[in-house]
Amino acid sequence: MLLFWQGLVIGLSIAAPVGPISILVIHRALSDGWRLGMVSGLGASVANMVYGALAGAGMSLLSTYLIAWHRVIAFIGAVLVAGIGVRFLLEKPAAKVEHPPVDGALVAFGTTLGLTLANPVGILLFAAIFTSVHLQGISSGDTVLRLITGIFVGSTLWWLVLCSAATLAQREFHLDHGHTINRVAGAVLLALAVLMVVRAL
What we know:
single chain; 9 helices; about 200 residues; mainly alpha
């Protein structure tokens, strides 16, 4: 169980920093409801599991490939983030959806999954953390499963807290989930897209 708890802490530490995914999850929770916010967070959690499994298993060939193409992948991710930011700035606020349709949930899940995987720094960060706690090169499938399960649970716990805090704040302070939220989220995402390009360079 030690590996599970180590994975849980790693999952929390990877998910917690504010970035494009956090902004997307908060926006979904405020505009479309807690459930769609959580579905968005789960997409990021699954992506973290994938990178955690790769780093934990010591897949150096794939890691090297991702590092070699990290600028291209980062630019693609920046374009996607900028595109979502522009869409938020331009779109009209929609009514809050308490029970999102399946296609909306799939889009929310796929968006955060793709954007998280489009950040090749993720595998480098996982590799660095794993090395620091002597987890690099785990070969047993059972141990890797425990580790990535912990990563998934840790990441999901963070999204649970974030979505719950966003919806609670909305209810307590009667936050307007219209143009203001869209504009703020769009502006922040555009700024983060520029930052992603600068970091890639």
